[in-house]
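In this section we walk through a basic example: taking a raw amino acid sequence and producing a predicted 3D structure, encoded as discrete structure tokens. The instruction is simple. Fold the sequence below.
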Amino acid sequence: MPTAPAAVLYESAQPMVIEEVEVLPPQAGEVMVRMKAAGVCHSDLHVMKGDLPMPVPIILGHEGAGVVEEVGPGVTSVAPGDHVVPIWRASCGRCDFCLKGRPALCDMGTAMRFTGLMPDGNTRFRSAGGRSIRHYAGVSTFSSLSTMPEAAVVRIDPAFPLWKAALISCGVITGVGAVTHAAKVPPGSSVAVFGCGGIGLNIIQGARMVSAGPVIAVDAHPGKEAHARRMGAAHFINAAECDAVQAVKDLTGGRGVDYAFEAIGQPRAIEQAYDSLKKGGTCVVSGICRADARAAINVNQLVYAEKTLRGTLYGSTRPRIDVVNLMRLHESGALQLDELLTRTWRLEQINEAYEALERGEVARSLIVWE
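The resulting token sequence is shown next.
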């Protein structure tokens, strides 16, 4: 039975524990992936803090890239040695959501996310003492070796750097997709982005890529300004020092913006994004909130101002197609990746990495094994 170092969460609000875990071989329709890079993303932090309850013990991590080490019976789309990106919302390809081009809503991925189990109802991780360990989003990229469904991987060009592919697998595709797929922002539209973390920076980048403008970045951490401007923001509002809604309106002649995006996962930020819209504007929420979170909005504005409020998961993209498309956009020079990476960490530094994320010290960071 192969073993691998992994970061295991045994209890919410407690540090993850680095230990060797047993990784069961892939069954029919499954693959085993040797991870090379894994993203330090806020979604995992919600589970760590207990905002999003999950069964424990569990190996977190949903953003990453690696190399296929072994495949189970019936696997045809990848082979050992292939470079792949994990999809943290695997889809069946047959249900109504999949057939309508909305694979992130597939019940298969939803079930794996909330149960921490593989589609057959079991796990592929064991502790040294034989205790079952749950999966996160079906991929658990915080284990250097992870068994997952074939449907949870996309084969990529082996010439494309794996650390860049890891950035695309969640933060980039979610942020850019929120602009291009969820909101379908037209050129010349004014945009405000509330939250300049990994997702928010890529929303800013997506707005730049579709020639939106002006693009206004809003964050309570002034250190995020340089990152936001690098991605394409024309203005930066320090939400800790002013009324962010009024500041957005001041920059848009008192009207507000055509599109506002919330990328933090806080009810107050959702309310601010909605309130910063002009008449006929659209607010798109991509941030993950606490499971019990509620936001208060002026409902009359839905009618009298014809505002739109909608959510987006995975950027409302088709990951199996759009991951590859984003790689091509990077190769053409349209999509920035090098500028996103603030620093890298070793697996044993993972708790330190999340402390830096909470302090707002990084744009995007990665756990790397090589």
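Looking at the output, two observations stand out. Residues 84 and 155 are 4 Å apart (CA to CA). The chain has two domains: 3-159+340-368, 175-313. In the next section we compare this with other chains.
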